[in-house]
Amino acid sequence: MAVKNFFITAGDVSGDIHAANLMAALKAQDPSVRFTAVGGSRMQSLADTFLCDLASQGITGFVEPIKKIPQLAQLLKKIRAHFETNRPTAVIAVDYYGFNYRVLLLAKRYNIPCFYYVTPQVWASRQYRAKRLAALTQKMYVIYPFEPDFHQQFGGNAVFLGNPLLDKIPAPVEKTYPAQDDKNYPWKLGLLPGSRPGEINRLLPVFYQTFKQVLQHYPNTHAYLFALPQADDKQLLSLLGETPHPQFHLVKETDYKQRAQMDYLLACSGTATLENALLGVPMLVAYKMFYPTYLVARCVVKVKDISLVNILAKKRLVPELIQQDASAYKCTQETLAMFSHPQKLTALRNDLLQLRASLGEPGVADRAALDILKELSK
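Predicted structure:
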């Protein structure tokens, strides 16, 4: 049996995680497979050849990538050379449409079969991209139950095997809240300002000031800032604008144990919001973009809500505070509304756990790996 050489590419932190899980699953199915990768540290640890750490650079949005064009062009040149001299058995793209689309175009030129794992949310904006993906991929592995029908409209071969977050998110812990408003209750308030530098710079000061304002009403509240393991502690703390409050804590974890214990979360829009939902932790969602990016986004985004939780629920389960609304004042008001009426937390938690049940069962990467290998054996 010929050795299978996969080229796999991801461009952000969440994509790095999903891609690494898929790589591990493919190696478990066939220990002889080899990987050349573009992605992040997790992919690098599994790759036989690693071309570039793209995931840690946080290149995203409509305007920001323009500054990175020379760098991305050089990377594409390197990938083209790899395709010419070491023709992969298949290319696997993971999320991150802008760059991965160009990788798929290169693969098409060399007649290399392509798969898309964690297909970009083209249903939310620029739906013409779905037709492009259909033309460039042999199969797509989507992460929401409604997506196969969407892609079928554009000729795409898409399957839903479950949401891959279920492979890494533990089962929800048992959780209770006070029976009534209790000013002395030791609330646990989690802060998730995002994984990209721009998101963190814009939201962490807002979230920290929200915590300070909540303390005026609930003085025993503790805040927990959840940061990536590789984050620079000094740089993060400098964004607070003061010496951290004694009840403020910095958390770096990979197992979600402390996040699962939170009573309420202030979360940047993105993958983290769905992680929170799978943990059953109530939240509000905030987002502040580079303003030119926001102006473009207003023109192209076709969905009413930005939070994955609200989109999947098809109703406004959690508050969304965007741009100027993502202020410490409004975040504080939303948080106090929940702490003063704990029954709202219980109801929201139950809704989030119902959402989890709709997204399938763990073992998604294993099922996708097996399916990719079957597709290549046809």
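Summary: The domain at 188-357 is CATH 3.40.50.2000 (Rossmann fold).
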